[in-house]
Amino acid sequence: MLLLAAACVVAVVLLLYMVSPLISPKPLKLPGAHVVVTGGSSGIGKCVAIECYKQGAFITLIARNESKLLQTKKEIEKYSVNDKQVVLCISVDVSKDYGHVENVLKQAQEKLGPVDMLINCAGTSVTGKFEDLEISCFERLMAVNYLGSVYSSHAVIPTMKERRMGRIVFVSSQAGQLGLFGYTAYSPTKFALRGLAEALQMEVKPYNIYVTVAYPPDTDTPGFAEEIKTKPLETKLISEATSVCQAEQVARIIVKDAIQGNFNSFMGSDGYMLSILTSGMSPVTTITEGLQQVVCMGIFRIIGLFYLGSFDSIVRRCMIQREKSESTDKTK
Ligand SMILES: NC(=O)C1=CN([C@@H]2O[C@H](COP(=O)(O)OP(=O)(O)OC[C@H]3O[C@@H](n4cnc5c(N)ncnc54)[C@H](OP(=O)(O)O)[C@@H]3O)[C@@H](O)[C@H]2O)C=CC1
Ligand SMILES: CCCCCCCCCCCCCCCC(=O)[C@@H](N)CO
């Protein structure tokens, strides 16, 4: 009886493997494709643009600061693989005025053709204790990290649906998979992208459009260098659970997953565990991915509980330390 059940399971798995090429998306061809990268003038966005350019794509870079855009354009052009390739720069704040964002993306499409891939990388972070963060921080981060991605995606989706092809990438964060001390303003903006991505993916899949959510860990970028200046001690200590990644490496993984149309894009072994743990009701792109989630979820939850225990003890130790130093300050 048991043998029969096992045989059935094996048969089903084999069958699923056989049909899996039918449900996996066809990879996007980057040579000659038009790739738009918001936040493309610095850090992860810049490396994503370079990676796509190296593979023959035409690039539109979007950010606010014009001189940074031009400098990055020059840097990217060093990697050209043919003499037709173009890097277009657009200076716009993706979080301000939807009409404006829609307009500049229309102009970009007139110049370089319809957008094949949009990478929403424009974003910023502020850390601090909940009550120390000004309300304007919560509003600004939601506007840039979340609404900025909504605006840019909203402007390109109609053409993608008409052409029945395309890729949309949202750059979330590991802090968009779990909430940590110091990230009360930032984490919700990154969790929001996941909700948007899931709902949007269900809408656009019949049009052969694939959505990817990337969850990078701490990554060595100008934005990260700015962030650590004001990070609470607790956040620093908790973040030491993972090592700092290089932007080039993060970009390579994001571009590979976007080309393949994978919903999940993660980096490193803790990124792998977090992605399995938080897979919830997210779509799967391969049978192997689904099987790994089913098999590993429980054990990763146990490992996760140990991590949570150690994070709680960091927070408690810091609190006791702070109270001690405050009371000695008072007695002085
Ligand atoms: N570095 C890290 O540790 C991690 C980063 N991430 C996420 O990756 C993304 C990139 O981060 P990172 O490379 O570190 O950031 P950087 O600060 O190095 O670069 C941010 C880019 O976004 C642009 N940008 C910022 N605000 C706006 C805006 N309102 N409108 C248009 N462009 C804007 C910036 O240009 P300009 O200022 O000129 O507008 C710049 O090009 C962010 O979404 C971040 O949350 C996720 C996980 C880890
Ligand atoms: C079972 C597995 C458990 C794994 C636990 C992993 C611990 C995660 C620590 C996460 C550090 C936060 C990264 C935020 C990066 C970011 O978005 C900012 N740097 C942006 O500037």
TrEMBL record:
Gene3D superfamilies: NAD(P)-binding Rossmann-like Domain. The keyword NADP applies. Keywords: Endoplasmic reticulum, Lipid metabolism, NADP, Oxidoreductase, Sphingolipid metabolism. One of its GO terms (molecular function) is 3-dehydrosphinganine reductase activity. Its EC number is 1.1.1.102. InterPro entries: KDSR-like, NAD(P)-bd_dom_sf, SDR_fam. Pathway: Lipid metabolism; sphingolipid metabolism; Sphingolipid metabolism. It holds the Pfam family adh_short. One of its GO terms (biological process) is sphingolipid biosynthetic process. Catalyzes the reduction of 3'-oxosphinganine (3-ketodihydrosphingosine/KDS) to sphinganine (dihydrosphingosine/DHS), the second step of de novo sphingolipid biosynthesis. This is 3-dehydrosphinganine reductase.
